[in-house]
Amino acid sequence: MNNTTTFDRAAHCRRIASRGGQATVQKYGAEYMRQIGRKGFETTTQRYFQGEHHHIAWLTQTGLHNYWKSTQLPMKYTLDGLPIWPDEQPTHPAHKGYTHF
């Protein structure tokens, strides 16, 4: 009889990251988390996007694509032949032209 179990690294990482986030909230409070989240968003916007509007548009398109993919439903198209949902996940500007492996 085989009693081996498979180690799920992704689940393990999510678990320990969640614990770290909870510990940080307990130690510094929710306002601290909002501040570092806002600072991260602003830094990413300045570094990779041409304004907050473009950053939010990228986040929206990425979210819509991931939602569509998670449903596993076939793509629907408009009468003009355009997909209803983004059929490809938009590439983050930080990864465009990335050649270092």
Task: Give the number of DSSP strands.
Answer: 0
Give the rounded overall mean pLDDT.
Answer: 89
- Total of helices: 3
Computed CA radius of gyration, to the nearest angstrom: 19 Å
Quickly give the structural class: mainly alpha
Give the number of domains: 2
> Span between N and C termini?
42 Å
Inertia-based shape: flat
Helix and strand succession? Answer: HHH
- Considering DSSP H and I runs of 4 or more, what fraction of the residues is helical? 55-70%
Assembly level: single chain
Q: Give the biggest sheet.
A: none
- Uncertain runs are none
Work out the strand percent.
under 5%
Structure description:
There is one protein chain. By secondary structure, the protein is mainly alpha-helical. Helix content is 58%, strand content 0%. The protein has three helices and no strands. Helix 1 (9-28) crosses helix 2.
